[in-house]
Structure formats: structure tokens, C-alpha cells
Amino acid sequence: MQDGQWGRDGDQLEQKVMEIINRIKGKKPPGALFAALAIVLLLLWGGSSSYYKVNTEETGVILRFGNFIGFAESGLHFKLPFGIDTVYLVKTGRVLKEEFGFRTVLAGVRTTYTKKDLEDESLTLTGDLNVSDIEWIVQYQIADPFKFIFGIKSPEETIRDISESVVRKVVGNSNVTDVLTTDRAMLASAIETELQTILNNYDIGVRIVTVKFQDVNPPDPVKAAFNEVNEAEQQKESLIFQAREQYNREIPKARGVANSTILEAEGYAVERINKAQGETRRFLDLLTEYRKAPEVTRKRLYLETLEAVLPLLDEIYVMDPKGTSALPILPLRGTPKGTALQ
């Protein structure tokens, strides 16, 4: 709980008034003068305690005769003096933070931390009976300032106690490998959810912003061995990644070559089938013509064959029917000049 700044100034003024009155009593002035002076000082004190200021990140909780009557936003406000109204200022616009296992010594460009004498907070037993050294932070905002300052005694300490309890429970249900390596984010999310649930049951007007593991390490006596294991795990993951990369590069390439070969084979098959079917139709057409006129068709086929074959020969000889000598004959059309015909 935090009293209003101007309420504290009023208490200081009250002390000064009492000092002046005691001095006047020592000098024993006339009764009327003493009464007039007391009234003036009382009015001055009442005027100074009748207004207060609420800063930008704050919310004022107003009590009248000890009963809650409302909130005050940022700015300058008036209240009933002489302790009738009391204002408590609560930082509702700021994200507050609780640190566990370490403390911020000097915040700034190069923030420094300390872990001295904080092992009781950071050392946590995991589910497989190993010990881990965990540093974490809990960030929260005050959602209801009245509940925060009047709903429970020492709300900051309550948040710290509950946070430690939840972290030890969640970490205690996990093995040390998950805590130290892969599942930090998942564990932090589980802690945040359970912590918010418990605080809602306590109804102290707090909203958890985030729970984050600042650093998680094995205890110093086994840190070197754990680092070796961690390096081996990282190397294993790297090799798996490289293998998957190689797989993703080679397998699509092989599939592409296979598909190309299949398409070429299918195209060749279609070509051969079409050619065979064409030759079949040509032969059947010739057969039909041959049946109509065998002699003419036979001569036409013979002449067409000679026209195709003779231009490919280097020399041509035409022999007499007995095959004993060559006949003198002029070169045929399409044969080189001076070539004998056989």
C-alpha cells in the first residue's frame, strides 16, 4: 500500500503546527491570540491536504472514512481534508517485474546482474531427480488497484511465493533434458497459465504479462559434462538437418529423371505403334490393289523399288539373258556418265 504524496505533506504540516503550538504554549500568550493562531494554522493545514496529484502511470484509490468510494485517474484532484479522504497511489500503467535466481544490480546500456546467495531460489529438482539451475522472471500488471492493496497482505511476496511453487511443480514434472534444451518455451507457457489461474482464485487484481526463463543451466559440478552432451546433441541435429537437405535435393532430381525417362519411353512406344499401324494400312492397301490387278501392281512395285535402289549404286551392269557378256547401252537416267549398266 502507498499513501498519497499530498497526504504525507499534510502529516508533515501537522507536525509543524503541533511544534508551533507547543512553542506558543511555552510562552503563554493570551487565550484569544492562541485560539486565532490555532485556527489559522488549522485552515492552512486543511487547505494543503485538500488536493493531491496522480501521475501518468498511477491510479488513485480513494477511501472516505476508511470505505472505498472510487478511483482517481492521472491529474490534479481535490479531496476532503483532515483525514476524511485518504488516497493510495498504485502503479497500474507499468509492467512490474519479479526476478528469481538473480537480481539486477545496475540497469542501463550494460545491465549487470548478481546471483550471490540466491541458490535457494534457482536450484530446482526435475522429474528424473536431477538438479537444474533456473533463473526466470515474472512480469505482471495491476488490473484492479483496490484488490491489489486491500485484497491480500503483501501482494508482491504472495506473487513471488506462488511463482516459485508453480515453477517447482512444472519443472518437477519434466525431465532435465527438456528443461535444459528444447522445451523451455512450452514450460514457461504452462507456468504462466497455471500462475494466472491461481492468482485469479486469490482475486488480488493481477494480470500476468509473461513468464520467461532468463537462463537455465546445470549445477556447476556437472556443467562441463552437460556441455559435452549438449554439443553432441547439437552435432546430431546438424547431421540430421544435412541429411534431410541432401534428401530434399536428390530425391526430387531422381524423380524428375525417372519421369522424363518414362515419358520418353511412352513417346517412343506411341511412335512405333503408329508407324507399325501405318505400315499395316499401307500393306493392306497394296494387297487390295494387287488383288484387283496383280500384273500391273507387281510391275509398279518393281519399278518403284528400282527407282529407290538404283541411285544408291556406284556401278550398274546390264547382262544378256545368258549372263555371258555385258551389253553396250547408254547410261540410264540418274547414273554417272560412262558407267556400264549390268
From TrEMBL:
The keyword Transmembrane helix applies. The keyword Membrane applies. One of its GO terms (molecular function) is peptidase activity. It is found in: Membrane. Residues 49-230 form the Band domain. SUPFAM superfamilies: Band 7/SPFH domain. HflC and HflK may interact to form a multimeric complex. This is Protein HflK. It comes from Desulfuromonas soudanensis.
